[in-house]
Amino acid sequence: MLRSRSNIAALLCLLILVMPAAQASEEPPELMGETVKISEILDSVSDFQGKMVVIEGKIEIECRSGCWFILGDGTASIYVDLLPSGLVIPQKSRSDARVYGLVTTKDGEPMMIGKIVRIDGEIIR
Fold first, then answer.
1. 54: which residues sit within 8 A by CB, 6+ positions away?
2. For residues 6 and 4, what is the distance between their CA atoms, to the nearest angstrom?
3. With left for phi above 0 and alpha for psi between -120 and 50, is residue 107 left, alpha or beta?
4. For the segment 16-62, what is each residue's pLDDT rounded down to a tens digit?
5. Domain boundaries in the chain?
6. Which stretches of the chain are DSSP H helices?
7. Looking at the domain that runs over 28-124, which CATH code has it been given?
8. pTM
């Protein structure tokens, strides 16, 4: 009896550890949208202002606490702020990232408020 309880407890612990990882790896539909080049956003800020878009590229610079980063896609780079969404990312500088977020401006400069981020297959929301 004790042995079967131990097995059940071990199985439950394993399920608890595996379930969040499985849920986190599912691609949210928001990230499946068409990717916009960062240069398009910078060239036509007024067209994208207040719109939700998907961008992707490499993390060029990241703050130590993971609340913002600069994303470059080869055409341009943009500041992505995660703090308004209550998100933080692990230290993943130079990693590939895909971001779903709101295009806005701060001090006259185009930027993005990230709502969902995928970095190296990990989903952060």
1. 30, 31, 33, 34, 35, 36, 98, 99, 100
2. 5
3. left
4. 444 343 334 588 999 998 999 999 999 999 999 999 999 999 999 99
5. 28-124
6. 2-25, 38-43, 45-48
7. 2.40.50.200
8. 0.78
